[in-house]
Amino acid sequence: MGKRIVLVSCVSVKKAHRAEVRDLYISTLFKLNLKYAYQLNPDEIYVLSAKHGLLSLDTEIEPYDETLNNMGVNEIRDWSMKILCQLSRLTSLDEDEFTILAGERYRKYLLPHLKKVSLPLEGLTIGRQLKRLKELTSETNGMNQCDGIHRVMHGLKRHQFPFDKSAIPKNGIYILFEKGETGHGGDRIVRVGTHTGENQLQSRLRQHFLNENKDRSIFRKNIGRSMLNQENNSFLRFWELDLTTQKARETHSSSIDFDYQESIEARVSQYIQANVSFCVMSVDSRAERLEIESKMISTVCLCKKCSSSTAWLGNFSTKGKIAKSGLWQVNELYKTPFDASEVTGLWRRMKVENQNHDSE
Question: Is there a cis peptide before residue 42, judged by omega within 30 degrees of 0?
Fold first, then answer.
């Protein structure tokens, strides 16, 4: 699993004396960018300096007066290649996830070399960037949006095992809740998911609740990981193996007790069926499903009111991101959350969902 890296551009307004990078730049834009970067809970934060290249926050430097705004295209290309060389020594350009809080000049020649990139302020003027950053870094922003999301989801029809397949839309997003986990005046969201193929939502839910195959459901695999780790069970190393292909099954056929694995699969099914309920939102567009899923996950994991209980099974996960986030997932964490208008859009969807349900 790759690391999360945030890149923040330098600014012209600086202290008049030598200081650590985190303190040298004193403009409001830089301070808000840095505050937002911390909020994303990344593995590393670096500053893109027009003079020095890539800088860690604790590096001490003297104030300087250089900016890419005064450089020609070739100079900016050379500077970008320097940044990429520095990044390649410290990160994986292919595997790590990069959030860039920098203008067009600072990122233009970096983007083609980075596989996973988020640009939360793309297309915004400086004034709109400041406004957006103030919204994102407000102490109550994340909690307010997360509270709104939970109220929307609490208003939707709740399903539990055994569920009626005909009541589930063909395309959409599912939101899972778990017994004993509470937040925002009701059940706490513990997982948000969707599907990439068309008309596969029902199938995806069956993979989680019914099909006893951990390699077809990362949710099932994570439940089993936590169970086995809680018990200090040595079978955990076999549970981690991906046996999707025939070759993999043949390779490990002599080392794995498949009868025992089936018993673990049965325990996982029993746990999910007894403890997990869910609601669904109908979303036909694949791109829209993925965007809503990502923003909902980020909103929930960034909310300080959505912490897991001390008894939550996920606390025993071998995946640190699960225990830390309180969600049964490791992807799409700490990225761009919903804003207030987007949560309002979810309210509208809920009304449509309930109207459709009432008319059936």
Answer: no
